[in-house]
Amino acid sequence: MKRPMQRWRNDVTNDILDLAASVGRALEARGLLLATAESCTGGGVAQAITEIPGSTGWFERGFVTYSNASKSEMLDVPGALIAQVGSVSEEVAGAMAQGAVANSNADVAISTTGIAGPSGAVPGKPVGTVCFGWSKGDTTHTERLVFTGDRQAVREQTVAHALAGLLKFIE
After folding, report:
1. Between vectors from CA 112 to CA 56 and to CA 141, what angle results, nearest 5°?
2. Span 105-158, pLDDT tens digits
3. Under a CB-based contact definition with an 8 Å cutoff, are residues 153 and 128 in contact?
4. For 31-124, where are the alpha helices, taking DSSP H only?
5. Selection from 169, 156, 163, 166 nearest residue 41 by Cα
6. Is the model more confident about 2 or about 98?
7. Which of 5, 31, 97, 110 has its CA 20 to 30 A from that of 71?
8. Does domain 2-150 have CATH number 3.90.950.20?
9. What residue ranges do the domains of the chain occupy?
């Protein structure tokens, strides 16, 4: 039984690395530098990106802002916004992406904030709820999705969606 699960995990990893390589090619073709601002993924997006040889040419830095205080301190997300809408919200995801661009030399940013589980659900935000932000210049796009599966599955789906969303955002 463990072999099929391991094979599935390897397939997911390969898909994520393929997406990261595609992101790299797209950023490089446009002369753009990327920053990441991650909460629920704990640096998983940055890890996927830095698995790609040559990523130093298009990846500027990553912020892992797991706590609310770090979101404010490192990304300038207003504490009042977090208190009003919660850290798992499109508004905070957008502010995180904007803050990653503002606090780096990057041109574009990805952000993730969510509830990977197994606990942490609140009314209206079940386990698996993830909010994304993609920001470049004066344009920021956000999205909220609910993924299924265990903690690892939610985080993997989040990394894959963040990368796929960036491809759409910059093209």
Report:
1. 90
2. 999 999 999 999 999 999 999 999 999 999 999 999 999 999 999 999 999 999
3. no
4. 44-50, 68-75, 79-85, 90-102
5. 156
6. 98
7. 31
8. yes
9. 2-150
